Amino acid sequence: MSKFKEFLKRKDIEISLKRYGIDALGAMAQGLFCSLLIGTIINTLGTQFHIPFLTTPVATVSGVEYTVGGLASAMSGPAMAVAIGYALKSPPLVLFSLITVGFASNALGGAGGPLAVLFVAIISAEIGKAVSKETKVDILVTPLVTIGVGVALSAWWAPALGTAAMKVGNLIMWATNLQPFLMGILVSVVMGIALTLPISSAAICAALGLTGLAGGAAVAGCSAQMIGFAVMSFAENRWSGLISQGIGTSMLQMGNIVKNPRIWIAPILTSAITGPIATCLFHLEMNGAPVSSGMGTCGLVGQIGVYTGWMNDIAAGTRTAVTAMDWIGLLLVSIVLPAVLCPLINLVLRKIGWVKDGDMTLS
After folding, report:
1. What is the pLDDT of residues 290-336, one digit of tens each?
2. Distance of alpha carbon 192 from alpha carbon 217, whole angstroms
3. What is the SS3 assignment for 61?
4. By three-state DSSP, how is residue 199 classified?
5. 306-309: which pairs have CB atoms within 8 A and are 24 or more residues apart?
6. What's the whole-model pTM score?
7. DSSP assignments along 57-124, one per residue
């Protein structure tokens, strides 16, 4: 057993929740952002601003035409797998081999492809790392093992993992449509907490294919955390803190949350309020890329995703136009209400002594 542990240490194979549930999951979200999400944004910009270069097909593969954004989106599987491999500190030959693994697992996983990529890429990367540089023909053995394991697992697991992920996502969306008030609170709070924790709410939403009303609640919850922390800590962190948290990430507050968990009460309560407002009052839906549901106001990706969904609905004929109420709902739920409610709730916490000056200062 000691020799096996030494082997794992030498190969930098760390079997832990942090490595797989935080590092790999977070990296997967970045891979999604740099492929599917960026591709969606490029397509939206091209369509809305009538930019020919962005709307004209630039490549045709097997009879399928791709725009610039379409090419980026098509590479989401390889991008996720390589990002996971990078997070797991894979050597070059393993990392490059994961391109094929990611494509296979994402394609065979169907709509639930991101979850399949997560599992298959992790196992393939770790097995690839285990055999890396163990033979004199490493340039042949490592890619063969990594790709062989990855494609085999993709054929074996990916369809089932993809189906399971979609069933869970569909269940959440069905429950949200059935009980928009209660599920609006639950989805908003859980996704908001996930966004601030060192895990990836974006990857979770992508893996579950979370869209519709549930996606709208997720946007509300994530935005409540980011805008809430940014505004209520303005006295300590000023403009740099407002920007870094408001359009960056509320994860910057995790160190302070560990020191005083009570600073988290205001953003969580705010998300519990804005979630049902999004689902019940404004019927805010996220019908863009599911990964956008878990991004909140990070680069305004959540809001861009909602807008992209509106355009998709108009193109599909399920929506006639974007109304003033649509814009009012989006702005209120994702920016205005968190900026007002969170500091007010935090003021009460300050009065009873649960939160003090300096508790939210970013280092």
Report:
1. 888 998 998 888 999 899 889 888 988 888 889 999 999 999 999 99
2. 10
3. strand
4. coil
5. 306/216, 306/219, 306/330, 307/44, 308/40, 308/41, 308/44, 309/211, 309/285
6. 0.81
7. --EEETTEEE-HHHHHHHTHHHHHHHHHHHHTT--HHHHHHHHHHHHHHHHHHGGGHHHHHHHHHHHH
